[in-house]
Description:
about 20% helix, 2 domains
Amino acid sequence: MEQWKTVSRRTILAHDKFLTVEAHQVQLPDGQLIDDWSWVKTPDFVNVVAVTEGGQFLCFRQVKYGIEGTSLAPVGGYIEPGEEPLAAAKRELMEETGFLAARWTSLGDYLMDPNRGYARGHMFLAEGAREVAAPDADDLEEQLLMRVSRQEMEAGLNAGEFKVVPWSLAVALALRRLEQNGRV
Amino acid sequence: MEQWKTVSRRTILAHDKFLTVEAHQVQLPDGQLIDDWSWVKTPDFVNVVAVTEGGQFLCFRQVKYGIEGTSLAPVGGYIEPGEEPLAAAKRELMEETGFLAARWTSLGDYLMDPNRGYARGHMFLAEGAREVAAPDADDLEEQLLMRVSRQEMEAGLNAGEFKVVPWSLAVALALRRLEQNGRV
């Protein structure tokens, strides 16, 4: 199978640091040209499922502009320009919760939209987390930090209470990994 | 916790049927106004993890413009205007594989981006699938339909071979559901 080729690209919307849209001229393997293939760029991000030394999960109840009502959410945020994903994950865990984790496991990184890009999400499991500071998040949204059991995470995932695609993915992958490692 | 309010919205990019961008004026609970909050609209979509009567999983090896190399992928596609998500799921399964499934389970629907919307992904598990026709997909991409074992799906998920956030979520949720239902 052959990749599609990017022949040229031009910016058609430079909104702010959170959103740029490009139009690409794309060449298919059979030579066919598509002139106006849209390609969307938003910041890459991390999501972190954090488990405390005592085996509890750090989890938010929060509001977000796009979500009706509230949602459960793992730790997460945008990667800063030039920042490594793991460094961003550690920074977001500290800023949002004040916790420091002893063991970090990558759960992979994934593209949001196979057609139009959008962003890459880097998923992490953080174990052995302990509280070392007060949270210091600069997010505009209200959020309530909770410590919940594995059973509550499972139930929340099953019920669709993590209402965002990458949030549910982070939780599902973390629960799988903990089970596979026998750390249920 | 209080929702943010949309005060007004205007279209700032109407690219094609696959992409519209709006700028919203948004009011925060404390009264603060944000003038240029970007909101991105692409079509809602379905992903379907299909299991045959014989217990094999239908899975693609495919190329996509945004993906380097190839990726494993479940059945999936855009919901047509006015179409119900389950109807879209059944249509995509038939078009992409020629299979009809006896039992359908919703695995929930999830927003792609809690800040900027983007699209809603509806996830399904389809069981008891049997081949009734030849595939008739109108997708531009090359894709190879495979029947794989549960172990191969598990290994692919663990290795990050489903390279897209919603694809990995569909697979992770389907595997969970099958395990919970004792249909391993």
